[in-house]
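Complex record, two chains
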Amino acid sequence: GQQLNQSPQSMFIQEGEDVSMNCTSSSIFNTWLWYKQDPGEGPVLLIALYKAGELTSNGRLTAQFGITRKDSFLNISASIPSDVGIYFCAGRDADNFNKFYFGSGTKLNVKP
Amino acid sequence: GAGVSQSPSNKVTEKGKDVELRCDPISGHTALYWYRQRLGQGLEFLIYFQGNSAPDKSGLPSDRFSAERTGESVSTLTIQRTQQEDSAVYLCASSVPKTGPSYEQYFGPGTRLTVT
């Protein structure tokens, strides 16, 4: 089955630092998504990527769709305490449009 | 309400009992997804509904799991003869497909199911 590896599993950083996390898949995706999930809530979409090589920003967040279509990264610049949460990558299978596969998440902790 | 709602928010049940989980999507959203999220893990696709088309059930883990949707509104996920391994948060998401299935999924808060 589809394998989606997300790293790192967790991060502890100081407020103001930049953060980077990434996902790799065992097969080609035609869409990459990045979500943030706060405790007790559902994930919220941050950035969506549709083309290989695409680089998209949303405020302090930047994400890229890898050229091989098997990877993506998310950067957060100048982190603030409210960035705390779990970040998930998700990819849409090129063979099954309906299915999204999710990474296991990166838990971000920001020290004020 | 403005968002996706799910009920109950928490459900504790005994092994072997059946449970029903409910999802109310955003009004006008024709697509609806169910996911399972085990503790500390990502979301696992279960089933996808789109309008009047046959649902994509390819993610359902066993025949104990089933889901129904009434038109383009409420959906229920039923788990029969629950097992302890079914303990997880069950998330529902809805969306409006554009060209092809939608990617902009709006999630509900989830139902936390605990099987004792």
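Note: Chain A is about 0% helix and 55% strand.
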